């Protein structure tokens, strides 16, 4: 019974929560990112991952996080069991988060469910890593 109530609440929160324009096609996301001059936030999940659902129902419903993500990223949602992604991405354990350049180069990645305040910290790490990569490119 508790499981049914939990699933119903998760479903309702997804109906009324923020609407993200998720792409499920890796190559299309790269094209979109180039056209919009944005990086890519790739979120890898699986159908039976309860931590993925929790992240979607909580952290990805935080308005401050959503606004930050929408400003900087093209959204790519990959179901590890049915969607294509290049082999060099780890996908065995989920949820997995990748932040990519428009050419698919990895900026930063991490694993797991994270509450909003922790996810914001990761976003700051991504920004820092991006700046370091940009600086290294200029120096070469």
Describe the structure.
The protein is α+β, with helices and mostly antiparallel strands. It has a single domain (2-139), classed as Glutaredoxin (3-Layer(aba) Sandwich). The chain has five helices and four strands. The protein has helices at residues 2-16, 26-36, 50-57, 63-72, 116-139, and strands at residues 39-45, 73-79, 96-100, 106-111. Strands 2-1-3-4 form a four-stranded mixed beta sheet, with helices on both faces. The protein is globular and about 60 Å long. Mean pLDDT is 87; it is low at 4-9 and 11-17.
Write the CATH architecture name: 3-Layer(aba) Sandwich
CATH class: Alpha Beta
Please provide the count of β strands: 4
The sequence of SSEs as H and E is HHEHHEEEH
Output the number of helix runs: 5
Rg of Cα set: 15 Å
Low-confidence stretches: 4-9, 11-17
Number of domains: 1
Outline, from the CA principal axes? globular
User: Structural class, judged by helices and strands?
Assistant: alpha+beta
First and last CA, distance = 60 Å
What is the CATH topology descriptor? Glutaredoxin
Helical proportion? 40-55%
Mean pLDDT: 87
Strand order in space, largest sheet: 2-1-3-4
Strand content: 15-25%
Oligomer: single chain
Query: Mind describing the biggest β-sheet?
Result: 4 strands, mixed
Q: State the fourth-level CATH superfamily.
A: Glutaredoxin
């Amino acid at each position: 019974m508790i499981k049914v109530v939990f699933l119903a609440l998760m479903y309702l929160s997804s109906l009324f929560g923020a609407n993200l324009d998720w792409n499920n096609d890796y190559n299309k996301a790269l094209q979109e990112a180039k056209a919009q001059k944005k990086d890519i936030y790739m979120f890898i999940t699986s159908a039976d991952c309860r931590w993925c659902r929790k992240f979607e129902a909580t952290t990805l419903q935080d308005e401050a996080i959503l606004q930050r993500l929408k400003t900087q990223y093209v959204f790519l949602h990959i179901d590890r069991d049915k969607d294509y992604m290049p082999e060099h991405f780890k996908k065995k354990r989920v949820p997995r988060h990748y932040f990519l350049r428009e050419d698919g180069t990895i900026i930063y990645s991490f694993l797991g469910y994270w509450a909003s305040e922790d996810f914001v910290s990761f976003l700051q790490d991504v920004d820092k890593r991006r700046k370091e990569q940009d600086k290294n490119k200029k120096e070469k």
